[in-house]
Write a structure and sequence with these properties.
By secondary structure, the chain is of the alpha/beta class. It is 18% helix and 30% strand. The chain has two domains: 326 residues, 4-Layer Sandwich (Purple Acid Phosphatase, chain A, domain 2), CATH 3.60.21.10; 90 residues, Immunoglobulins (Immunoglobulin-like). The strands form six sheets. Strands 3-2-1-14-15-16 form a six-stranded mixed beta sheet, covered by helices on one side. It has a six-stranded mixed beta sheet with strand order 4-5-6-9-11-10, with helices on one face.
């Protein structure tokens, strides 16, 4: 270990008190028959700028939480790896990469492996293609890797060492490594990490979102064993659309920096408290090659979603198909006695709607308000996200600052789920 990193680790000890493990995240209750034989945690988009900043703090808290979860499991008490799917730094400076190395060196214990990919995004802002060498010099890790840890294959691909995003050689390399892995263990999952989502798979990967790439699509389609994990979009991992199955399985890992959305084809939507995003995937595999993926809200210390992939090697995957789940979904429903609350202050209205309910792993995505005058003309409309992406989801959502002329109006608010199903509206009269 270099003297510089040793010095950074010394400074890092000042922040130890911030890194106490969280205790709320427990072994899942919905899959009592699931006994893990392997475990790792994955996230992305930590956007570190300097040692001890918010990104460093969240990384350390995430890792310590993962150890606490592992150590509480009497069946398997190890954490095999900690994985970062790119944008580990905010601007790719030497200081930021050094802070990442120091933070993870401090937090990771024993034989737990650290794996990370370098993105042609924030990680390359300062050094460009030389970001790869900077990363390797500070971490000792190759930017493209194929590692076998506790019997399972982990493959990561960083940006290319050229001015290209990825090269044809990297695509061929991935194909070769996947062929090796699947021949060696055809029934096992193979975990593949890139920064960008695969185009038209998970939430945030579609053309109108702008966060997907088709570079590796043809290769991944050949290997049903693949579970592809990515970041880049900052879209929440507990959104049911963040897991997808087609020829392979893909999942977005959320991230540790800030939330972002596409809403009504409007990109770069940042909701209230959007910088409070602290999501990671705690992933376990059992002896039957089932994969349990739990979305951890690091700050809250709670799991906010759970997915069980039990068809890893099957060439036909419908369980987490978006089309199949959308077809089976039903609209949100308000409680029988639910009602809108209306308050007026300083000439402006505040309208509060109680949260609606959904079934299964569905989520209420947002609420839409429409206000019409006595002639039926719409004079106001707006939307508010439901805040389902936080562990502490509020019981109600409020539309504030609504200005109306004197008169009589009908207010209608409907809940919309992540698949676009709209509830019956709650209505009230004002004015």
């Amino acid at each position: 270990m270099s003297a510089f990193i040793s010095l950074l680790l010394g400074f890092l000890s000042l922040f130890t008190s911030l890194f106490v493990p969280l205790s709320k995240a427990q072994i899942p209750e919905n899959n009592d028959d699931f006994v893990p034989v392997a475990r790792f945690i994955a996230t992305s988009d930590t956007h570190i700028t300097a040692l001890g900043d918010k990104g460093c703090t969240r990384i350390a808290k995430m890792i310590n939480s993962a150890y606490a979860i592992a150590e509480a499991d009497s069946d398997y008490n190890k954490l095999d790896a900690v994985v970062f799917a790119g944008d580990i730094t905010d601007s790719g400076t030497f200081t930021a990469f050094s802070a990442f190395a120091a933070t993870t060196d401090k937090a990771i214990k024993g034989d737990t492996e650290r794996l990370a990919v370098v993105a042609k995004s924030h990680d390359s802002s300062s050094f460009g293609s030389d970001a790869l060498d900077t990363f390797t010099s500070l971490t000792g890790q190759e930017p493209d890797f194929h590692r076998v840890i506790n019997g399972f294959h982990y493959i990561g691909i960083s940006r290319s060492p050229t001015d290209e995003h990825y090269t044809a050689e990297q695509v061929k390399w991935l194909d070769t490594e996947l062929e090796k892995a699947t021949k060696e263990a055809p029934e096992q999952p193979v975990f593949v990490f890139t920064h960008e989502h695969v185009l038209n798979t998970v939430f945030g990967s579609f053309a109108y979102d702008g966060w997907g790439m088709d570079t590796f699509l043809d290769v991944l389609n050949k290997y049903p064993q693949v579970i592809h994990i990515s970041g880049h979009s900052h879209y929440p991992a507990n959104d049911p659309r963040s897991i997808w199955q087609g020829n392979f399985t893909a999942i977005g890992d959320g991230g540790l920096a800030y939330y972002e959305f596409t809403v009504d084809n409007e990109t770069s939507v940042h909701p209230h408290n959007y910088k409070s995003m602290t999501q990671a995937l705690l992933i376990e595999i059992d002896a039957d090659n089932r994969v349990l993926i739990r979305v951890l809200d690091v700050d809250a210390g709670e799991f906010v979603k759970e997915y069980l992939v039990d068809n890893v090697s099957s060439s036909v995957k419908l369980k987490y198909s978006h089309d199949a789940r959308k077809l089976l979904s039903t609209a949100p429903v308000f409680d029988e006695n639910a009602a809108l609350s209306v308050k007026k202050s300083c000439g402006k209205y505040k309208i509060t709607v109680p949260q609606a309910k959904v079934t299964g792993d569905n989520e209420v995505y947002l609420y839409r308000i429409s206000i019409t005058d006595s002639d039926g003309n719409e004079v106001y409309s707006a939307r508010e996200l439901s805040q389902y992406y936080f562990a502490d989801t509020p019981d109600s959502i409020t539309f504030s600052g609504i200005s109306l002329k004197n008169g009589s109006y009908t207010v209608s608010v409907a809940a919309e789920d992540v698949w676009g199903n709209l509830s019956e509206a709650l209505t009230t009269q004002i004015g």
